[in-house]
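Friendly challenge for the regulars: who can give me the structure tokens for this chain first? No prize, just bragging rights.
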Amino acid sequence: MAAVFVLVVLVASAPADDAAGQASDWGWDTGALITLPPRVALSWSRSQPSLALDVSMPWMIQFGNRERALRPHRAVIEPGVLFTSPASPYLRAAYEYTRHPSDEWFGFGLGAGATMRAGASILFGPSVELLAHLGKTDGPGFLVASLRCEWLGGELVCGGGVGARYW
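First reply, four minutes later:
Bragging rights claimed.
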């Protein structure tokens, strides 16, 4: 069975005028294709009662008005592996909204998307995510802690993890 997973993001890069009539810094940026260190998480479900290691490398396109190094909207493509018996590779496509003022050490984000996981069978379902950003955004990077829940094959799979973000 072949599965096709496509995320299409249409982004116009023309500057818009803000309320004062001045050009804003609306646009988009792509992230590094490989994120080191990767996102590392632990996942749990009823059918897999022990915690399972989850390693992924999210790739992002951020877009919207720039607030220093960050733009508030992100399109995410995230390949990963859930180390269960047997290991289950997955691909997640999502949208994230991030609010992290450049002069603050803490920010937050919300995400929603879809996950396709291969294993004994191919499972497909929706996912939601809550993000907490730790660190200043005007430097080379910051940490992100996440709590994610996915509905795959009629079962709720939840997990939490940490990873590095460069913007």
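The CA atoms of residues 124 and 154 lie 10 Å apart. Residues 1-23 have pLDDT under 50 and may be disordered. Your move, everyone else.
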